[in-house]
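During the no-cost extension, the postdoctoral fellow (Dr. R.K.) reprocessed legacy sequence entries with the updated structure-token encoder. One reprocessed record is reproduced below for audit purposes.
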Amino acid sequence: MKNTIYENVKETADPRAILVGLNVNRSESDFERSMDELKELTKAIDIDAVCTVTQALPSPDRSTYIGSGKVEEIRSSLDVFDANIIIFNDTLSPMQLRNLEKALDTEVIDRTGLILQIFARRAKTREARLQVEYAQLQYMLPRLAHMRKALSRQGGGSGRLSNKGSGEKQLELDRRRIEHRMAELRRELDDVEKERTTQRGKRINSGMPRISLVGYTNAGKSTIMNNLLRMYGGEAYDEKQVLEKDMLFATLDTSVRKIAAPGRRPFLLADTVGFISELPHSLVKAFRSTLDEAKYADILLEVVDFSDPEYRYHMDVTKETLTEIGAGDIPVLYVFNKSDIVQEQQKESSQLVMDVPRMMDDRIYISAKADDSLDTLIDLIEKKLSESEAEYELILPYSEGAILSSFNERGIVKSTEYLPEGIKIVATLSASDATKYQEFFSCNLG
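Re-encoded structure tokens follow.
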């Protein structure tokens, strides 16, 4: 009889999660909004949310966060829904995580851990990967005692940290490994931050206006960036495109691109990481150097998903985050994106239909995919940039041709005349430029 070899192939099922939320003195609408957002976060990491369990208590249970009765209910639901992960809508203490995993005998993730996993999956550049790893280790450090899987046990040669303290408990060795790796990451991040600061300094010295796209995650910032690049990004714009996808935290990496619309001054546009409610403090801290692009902007374009019923709440979260990173005082233009969706809803319900695009003071209602909307946005940016500017007449010595070249590149020169004593120009200058170049002033044209 011929020998037959059978190969056992075990199919790995997609992760299935039970979502758990605790309402502690929150309004029903706020709580529902938070739970809906948890579902979107779960979807963003390809986990199927099969069941939602909620509980209302005056304060979280110190031991299990939701109380022993609810823990038993969740344990019974695991088999019913064939779930293998429990995801909580809040940050759990190390003790709560340990007790819940012991009682449920399955993986338990809190909101912070979930967002960290999303960030780890989305990080593409070296800087983003370093930032996410640092935040993960910072989160992991106080939770070592409850972790079910041992960390890497790879040792090394003489003098390595892994060989020190042979009498120590494994927990302490793990702790020391993490602290050592965090110190390494901090040094690497400091080097990357120095490089970013140098690049930012060059952009500041160029005198070109700096504008940052900010706002709640999935509001359409990357769509605006990509379509402006398509229209005004010059040749090979497709190579400058950023990731654009309908999901939370589709992109983490800050990208800076030059936008040069005909008849308008060019500017540098930065696409930054999106915000979300209850964004883990460790992530805000780890991504501070990236978020600093917003802090050093001349104007912030706050992109708002106008079709989302919770858009006002999203604006509040964005305002709080900008204040936290030190960008709360920068002038803001509010860009209400996806206004075309609202327009269609108004038509269907026979309401008064709004115009799109529509510009009102520091607000604009647009569709990020429509060229006329983006043209109107460019007009609003130009108008905002001109608010603190005035026209000046300058006489530049012929030895200062670099200044004229810089002005021409920025699109602020109105006229040029070559005289025996120098180059007479009329240029539109900001207050900072006026101070910088006042020695060449002929007069202020008002």
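Confidence is low (pLDDT under 50) at residues 1-12, 148-167. The radius of gyration is 27 Å. The remaining legacy entries will be reprocessed before the final report is submitted.
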